[in-house]
Design goal:
Length: 494
């Protein structure tokens, strides 16, 4: 796994500032108030910090932004970053400040001297998340921060907050690595192996193989994978940190590569379909975070792992398959495969676990990118309270999410002449008809949210907390949803 920047907390050592190597960072409040380390650095640099904070430049900088002074006089550091940040910053400002510090090419060390800065944990999260790079397949060594040292007044008081940050960062990194990994490496077998390795963290992990899936009657899922050399699998991860209450179920689309099947996709951009397991990636990352921080909640994660390939044995347009639920589906387009996978895994999750709620995540439709771009995931739900609690969590974590409608009126678009339904409704409302299809596999009284993450799982330009590529969108929001809504006694932790 990609290793997060390693972070150590020490007490403030004013004498060490002059000799700190790599990047040195200090924090100054927007109105120019300096703490002890900042004052020391100002003196060492013969007033450079004060000149900055009294300048027009400083006035124009937003909270969380930093100004970098290169090869500063009086310091051993290659760069001095003066970060503009309140003592009690907003969460996004603290993360942004951390994210800016991650962008440093040069020596691999960072020292942040911030004696009594608030929300240092969130700053650390920004630093770690923005410091991600998928370099597994690059032979040349990377020129970026690897070690960070935070000098603070009371390191022991920050340790616990940092442990929680590390759990979240590791979950996000796990997701990003899975999503970034090419399909010749991340086969269904390799994916299942990586999930099985999480038994070490106390998760119960079970892999259902094709014969078992056949016995269960998962004809919709199996139809998608039947043209691939890689066997289809369903992996079930259980975290039982709560009492005996019904679990929250997270279900993910894990198409390790989507060629479109016999309804073959065009060549241009097809390489992006290595990320078509993004939903399963998020589910896996959340489960990792919950296990690492020993969440006091019951959550099950289920992922359907298949590869959609054209082949002599591949399913054809026009085929009719029978789902585990019993409903039959006419496969009009073999490229609308994600919903076929989810149909069976959703049904299995409800039958086996009787969950208190189900959330599925999937890179399901290109149409959601047309509608919402790369800023928001599409949110569909049969339960307003459940949907709102997710939207609140997503807003708090600044992970874009926007609700779209469901409705009976859309059903006529997926009506089949020869089966119970067909798997595509044509171009109009493409994301909604996909969600409408999924709802056929949700029991009447089961609160359910469907997240179409095709636009947000993988992006072509840098975001606030991620370099371009896999974002890990959703791990933080879902972790927060669990923390706020499912952990035994929210009051106990303050
Ligand atoms: N995996 C794709 C959706 C997708 C598109 C994800 C772009 C990420 C980026 C999905 O399986 C798919 O092919 N959907 C089709 C559905 C259509 C055939 C009804 C689509 O969106 O074109
Ligand atoms: Mn497809
Ligand atoms: Zn797909």
């Amino acid at each position: 796994m990609t290793k997060p920047i390693s972070l150590t907390l020490t007490t403030t050592d004013l004498d060490a500032l002059a000799g700190a190597e790599g990047k040195l960072a200090i924090v100054v409040t927007p109105d120019g108030k300096m703490d002890q380390p900042a004052r020391r650095v100002n003196r060492l640099t013969k007033g450079a910090v004060a000149r900055l904070t009294e300048s027009k430049k400083w006035e124009k900088m937003k909270p969380g932004e930093g100004f970098v002074i290169g090869f500063p006089v009086g310091l051993a550091a290659e760069a001095l970053s003066v970060v503009k940040l309140d003592r009690r910053p907003k969460l996004d400002e603290a993360r942004k400040a951390g994210a800016e510090l991650a962008r440093f090419k040069g020596d691999a060390a960072l020292t942040l001297a911030a004696s009594n800065q608030g929300r240092l944990d969130e700053l650390a999260l920004g630093l770690i998340l923005r410091g991600y790079a998928f370099t597994t397949h690059q032979t040349e060594e990377r020129d970026a921060i690897q070690d960070a040292r935070f000098m603070v007044n009371k390191p022991e008081e920050q340790e616990q907050a940092l442990a929680s940050i590390r759990a979240r960062a590791e979950g996000v990194f796990f997701t990003r690595d899975l999503v970034s990994e090419p399909a010749n490496v991340l086969t269904t077998q390799e994916f299942a192996d990586r999930l099985e390795a999480m038994r070490d963290l106390g998760l119960k992990v079970e892999v259902l193989e094709e014969d078992k899936l056949t016995d269960l009657g998962m004809g919709a899922l199996l139809g998608v994978g039947q043209g691939s050399e890689s066997p289809s699998k369903v992996v079930v991860m259980e975290w039982t940190g709560g009492g005996d209450e019904a679990p929250l179920a997270l279900v993910g689309k894990g198409v390790v590569f989507d060629t479109g099947g016999i309804s073959l996709k065009p060549a241009a951009g097809m390489e992006d379909m290595t990320m078509d397991m993004g939903g399963a990636g998020v589910v896996s990352g959340v489960m990792r975070t919950l296990a690492l921080r020993k969440a006091k909640a019951n959550v099950v994660g289920l992922v359907g792992l298949v590869e959609n390939m054209p082949d002599g044995r591949a399913q054809r347009p026009g085929d009719v398959v029978r789902s585990m639920k019993g409903d039959t589906i006419e496969v009009i387009n073999t490229d609308a495969e994600g919903r076929l996978v989810l149909a069976d895994v959703l049904w299995y999750a409800q039958e086996r676990f009787r969950p208190a709620g189900v959330i599925d995540l999937a890179t399901l439709t290109g149409a959601i990118i047309i509608g919402l771009g790369h800023e928001n995931a599409g949110v569909f739900s049969n339960d307003n309270g459940f949907a709102n609690s997710f939207l609140r969590a997503a807003r708090a974590e600044e992970e874009g999410a926007w609700r779209l409608p469901l409705g009976k009126a859309y059903d006529k678009l997926i009506k089949s002449d020869i089966a119970d339904m067909k798997n595509t409704g044509g171009r109009p409302a493409g994301s909604i008809t996909a969600a409408q299809f999924l709802q056929r596999f949700i029991k009447e009284d089961c609160p359910w949210i469907h997240l179409d993450i095709a636009g947000v799982a993988h992006v072509k330009s840098d975001t606030a907390l991620a370099p371009k590529g896999a974002t890990g969108w959703g791990v933080l929001a879902l972790d927060r949803l669990v923390r706020d809504g499912y952990e035994a006694d929210p009051a106990a932790d303050g």
